[in-house]
Specification:
Layout (H helix, E strand, L loop, with lengths): L3 E7 L5 E8 L6 E9 L2 H11 L10 H22 L8 E12 L6 E5 L2 H8 L3 E3 L3 H5 L9 H8 L6 E6 L2 E7 L8 E7 L2 H11 L8 H4 L5 H8 L2 H4 L13 H5 L9 H23 L5 E5 L6 H11 L3 E4 L10 H14 L7 H4 L9 E3 L3
Parallel strand pairs: 1-4, 4-6, 7-10, 10-11
Antiparallel strand pairs: 1-2, 2-3, 4-5, 6-12, 7-8, 8-9
């Protein structure tokens, strides 16, 4: 069996798909090639409409599921074409899909990802492992976060306790104790980039606040910040997970800011909310950590990292790049790894992280033929 896998990941920003070609023949994954594939604007609009549905399970999302699957397949095919790699050389694709709604605490818990994996398999000629969250939820877990098992396999160190934070749309932290008998801890800390991205798109028509420059020029609205920090999620004990269905602009608008605050001040306040919630989670659950390894899109927000570094001093805040993996591609590589775990019949969840009753093999296999 080949050790080549593809990981496909699209986060809460819904701007497109990260595709990674990975060699998993050794303990240290080798990232061979990457491809960023944008959603067509009309498809992104349909996705944004879907996440605003009150009850997505009652809607017929099959056309959207198929169309997202086509774009995922195109991302994988473009990745292979860019490297001259034959589809037959790849063992499987691990596809996270696009999250529409994450409701682990509902009366009937579920987490809905779309991007028809059978269509991906048919279009690429490669088997696909997908639907990663269902088995953990059926075992009583949150179905998220799922990357801590990968973080532990890649970044755990026997000589020091470390924490890893992925700052995507939602931020999640993994605590890796140096003592292997101690359990790995992980949970979503709250908003990562999602509120900042939504705010700058609404106010300035931009996809992101590049380098955090807009936030850096504003002032923190302490009244607004205090209101946002009172959300019960921040005080909730793990295991816990969240998503854009909770942290969105409607949620923000429920907290009136202090009179005289500008849109730029709101951005600065949102940056502080993300930095502060990550820092508080690190202090509370990774108090012995000597370093915090950062991955995800937030690693490029200089202002966010400046505030996070200041809040956690003397803890070293570093990119995962220094520890073997490009921070932009950690999640895509993680889902390639989870696909391999599935094919090897190995658990991909950590019960102490998700709250599941026991370890489970994650995902379902969709054959190309």
């Amino acid at each position: 069996m080949s050790a080549l896998f593809i990981g496909l990941m699209s986060g809460t920003s819904m701007d497109g798909i990260d595709a990674a070609l990975v060699d998993l023949s050794t303990m240290q994954p080798r990232l061979l090639a990457t491809h960023g594939h944008h959603y067509p604007e009309d498809l992104r609009t349909r996705l944004l409409e879907a996440i605003r549905l009150e009850d997505p399970l009652s809607e017929d999302l099959s056309p959207l599921d198929d169309d997202v699957g086509v774009v995922f397949a195109e991302a994988a095919s473009a990745l292979l074409a860019s490297t001259g790699t034959a589809a037959s050389a790849v063992t499987a694709i691990g596809s996270h899909g696009q999250t529409i709604h994450h409701a682990p605490d509902a009366a009937r818990p579920y987490s809905l990802q779309i991007g028809n994996p059978q269509r991906i398999a048919r279009m690429t000629g490669i088997d696909v492992v997908a639907d990663f969250r269902r088995a953990d939820i059926e075992a009583g877990g949150q179905g998220a976060p799922l990357v801590p098992a990968f973080h532990a396999a890649l970044f755990r160190c026997p000589t020091e306790t470390r924490a890893v934070v992925n700052i995507g749309g939602i931020a999640n932290i993994t605590v890796l104790p140096a003592i292997t008998s101690e359990p790995v801890i992980g949970f979503d800390t709250g908003p990562g980039n999602t509120l900042m991205d939504q705010w700058v798109r609404e106010q300035q028509g931009l996809a992101m606040d590049r380098n955090g420059q807009w936030a850096a020029g504003g002032r923190i609205d302490q009244d607004l910040l205090a209101c946002l920090q009172r959300d019960p999620y921040f005080g909730q004990a793990p295991p816990k997970s969240t998503g854009r269905e909770h942290f969105n602009l409607d949620w923000l608008s429920a907290c009136p800011g202090k009179a005289g605050s500008t849109a730029q001040d709101v951005m600065s306040t949102l940056c502080e909310l993300t930095a502060g919630s990550i820092a508080e989670a690190t202090r509370q659950f990774a108090g012995e950590a000597r370093r915090l390894l950062v991955c995800g899109g937030g690693v490029h927000n200089r202002e966010l990292l400046r505030r996070l570094t200041a809040a956690l001093d003397p803890v070293a805040v570093e990119s995962t790049r220094a520890y073997g993996l490009d921070p932009d591609w950690v999640e895509a590589v993680a889902f390639a790894w989870l696909a391999q775990q599935h094919l090897d019949s190995k658990p991909g969840n950590i019960p102490e992280v998700t709250g599941a009753r026991h370890p489970v093999v994650l995902g379902r296999l969709f054959k190309q033929a």
